[in-house]
Structures are given as structure tokens and as C-alpha cells.
Amino acid sequence: MQRSLRLPLSLTGAAALALANTPIQPVAAQEKDGSAADLGVMEINLKDAVQFNWGFQGALQGAGTPNQAGIGAFLPIAVGENSVWFIDALANANFADRDGESSIVNTDVAGTTISTSTRLGYRWLNGDRSWMYGVNAGYDSRPMNTGDADTSVNVFDKRDVFFSQVAAGLEAVSDTWNFNAYALVPIGDDEHRLNSQYEAGALDTYGLDVGYSITPDLNAFVGYYYHSGDVGEADGSGVKGRLAYHISNGLTLGANLSYDEAFDTRFTADIKYRFGSNGYGAPSKKEPAVMPAIQALSATPANRDVRVGDGCFYVNGVYKCFDVKTEPSGGICDGTFC
């Protein structure tokens, strides 16, 4: 399958690096009196602030992503005076799509499978600890069971398939701003036949999310992404928005809205709860406030799902779905049907 990788990857990486190095003066920092030293930020020992935390997460189905719930953990493996190496791992149970509402466009995801995601990363603070910068990379897997199509087409020969990807991300976080550039690149067999009518592909996705802290507990994000794949039917751009509200004690609720030509408009919601220590990994409103740049050192990296979309078979130079009742000589793949 042909992919247009160089342009979106270059744009994403260049944008993220430019943002990370731009001397933006956070609005919140301008409004505060005193320097970082006056606020006590320089006195924080990162070995106390950055500690192991774990918890639960869940999300409703979205654009190529399933209904899911699972467990995750953040493990610092080397904490320095101003930096941290870490591993973050997730395991989610993926559930069936809502009846008649396919998360991958045409075919309903069925049954329950277990997906995984792992990130190895390095994060560091700037001189006055007003910004956190980070880089991470890892591997994600997604087995997928399939059921009926939510189109008018009857399907048979339903199959269970497996997708995987490698991923990389760049981060920059201050009191007010949050930038996240990412790349999700399928590996191995990235296209599979799902049933008698459709085949599916994992999506190459490259994006940039920009967040702004409306209040200390409410963050708004907007994002752009380019994806390709979906057996040739999903090449193009998309936009998304997100609101995240930190309730207390590590509990965060999120609402997300996305649009692109392949998946149209998709709304999803998510929830995350993290058990931490010292009010850093799982901050509580009862604890003293901790600067977002410090909190971000032990935050869970975003954009972890293997995104999948399905389309019709590629036959005689075009993508086409066949009705097995009216086109028995369609001649798809191995000739055992259509």
C-alpha cells in the first residue's frame, strides 16, 4: 500500500520542535508575582515528586478506536536533578461496538480482546522549571474480533485479525500551554481481510495537539492530524478538540470531538484514575498546588491506540464491494466467494 509518509512526518516533527524551543511566556506565569525560586519550585526534589503511579482508564469508541477499559502504570527508572527516564505501560480490554455503529466505518468490532501499549521516554525541565520537555517512543498492539457489517450488506467468513504499530511523541508543557506531536506507524501485516466484503488496515497517523489551561483544573485542546491507510480510503486530514477536567485525587474526565472524511464526525468520552504519592502522581485538591510542568514529568503519554478503518476490496484497479447474490463472478481474492 502506498503511503505519503515524508511530508506529514516532517511537518509534525518540525512543528513540535519549533514549539518546544519558542520562548513563550505563559499567561499564568505573567500573572504570578515572584520568580520560580520565590514560588518554591526550585526547592522541589524530583525524587520525591516523580514516583511510581498506577490506575485505571476507559474510553468510548471513536474514529478507528474501540470501547475499552483497562489498567496502566507509570514507572520512573532513573530520576535526576532535573530529568527523568520512565516506562509507561497500558493493557486494555477492547469491547464490541455499539450495535449498528461501527468504529472502523463499515464492520462492527465484536467480542473482547486485550490490547497493549508501552512507552519508553525521557523528560526534562528547563532552567527555571517553567517548562517540561519530553520525548517518548514505543510499541502498541491490537487484536480485533469482527462481526456483522452495519451497512445493508450481508457478510460471512468473519475473521479475527491482529494489528500493531510503533509510535513516537514529542512534548512541551508549561503552566498554560501543552504541545504534543506524535506519529503512529503500523508494522507487520497492516491490512487484513475481515469478511466476504471488507478488508481493514491500520492507519498511519501524524498529528499535533495544542492545549491551553482555562483554569488549573480545566484544559482545552485542539489538534490536527493526517492519516493514510484504510486500504486506500482514509488518506487525508482531520481535526479534533478535547476538554479535560481534573476532578480530584487523580480522577480526570475527558470529552473529545473529531472530524475527517473517512470517519465523519465522532464523539467520544474517557475517564482516567491514577493512584500516586505526595500529591504529585495523583494530585488532590486538598494538597498544595503543584506546577503543571512538575506534574507533567509523571503524566501518562497520550495517543496510544492502534487506529483501524475498513473498506472494500481492491479489484481490477478500484475499490469495490460486491453483492454475492447479484455478482457471483466478482472474483475477489481466492475465488471461494463472490
TrEMBL record:
First and last residue of the signal peptide: 1-20
Keywords, sorted A to Z: Signal
UniProt entry tagged with the keyword Signal: yes
Tree of life domain: Bacteria
InterPro entries found in the cross-reference section: IAT_beta_sf
Name of this protein: Carbamoyl-phosphate synthase L chain
Taxonomic path: Bacteria, Bacillati, Cyanobacteriota, Cyanophyceae, Synechococcales
